[in-house]
Amino acid sequence: MKAVTVQKITDTFHLEVLAGAACMSREITRQRTHRPGLEFVGYFDFFPMNRIQVLGRKEITYLLTLTVEERKLHIGNIVKYHPPCFIVTAGQQEIPYLKLFCDQEGIPLLRTEETTNEFIAKLDSYLVKALAPELSIHGVCVNVSGIGILLRGKSGIGKSETAHTLIRRGHRFVADDIVVLKKLGPATLLGTHNETTREFLALRSIGLINVVRQYGRRAFQDETRIVLDIELAPWRENALNNELELTPQFTEYLGVKIPHIEVQLQPGRDVAGLIEAAANNWYLKQLGYSAAEEFMKRIEDGMTGH
Could you list the active site residues? Predict the structure, then answer.
């Protein structure tokens, strides 16, 4: 099971450590945070104890309405479940008993100056990506006119060179050689790099180039949603390469089906241009337009005299 440590969360979001500093190696394995509301009134039947517990103004204000003994009781009841950590938002100060119990139980208590809703939105988004199931594959990832594309094919077939041409045409580079795929939802697949290869593109006979240094910041992006899987393959004689409407093909990664297209290579073919056409065609299909359907309709209209 994937996990991130409380220390990693603290460093990423620049949080202030108020208690439990010796236990920052505790692991977080759940993607969503939780705001304890019902738990403060004693209802724990559905308490997600493995999630980060976020205390906003609503929760702290409620605790301050209680007597000292009630406050100690309610805070103690939650702390004893040992969630990974507590995070107090909006820079709130009135939390002495929470600090006391967290120090006693070895649970990190953190604080941010950000408002509750803004912080939870950022933290949940981070956790979804950080804890998402992932798979590393050999290929190249690019973003063509806002459309994420995974380029695959045998080593040396020209994936990186094609990506370089696309970059020069104004499209964006994401990853070369090793593409990390992350499943963010039932139908959402994110493509990114593995940090080590970030911004680097390997071109045969040339070597490594840094895309950002050579073409500027706009030529690179950290991640993109993958919506097309394009395989570069050698040209096959006698293969049917001019079908009017190709039968839809899919490749499955981490349980997510991605439309698959095979582009056969031949000297003189504008492979980058074909990839641009495939991306634009996919976009038009999302809008409900099919060139093949329009073409067939014109033929039918011509046969019926309309």
Answer: 138, 159, 177
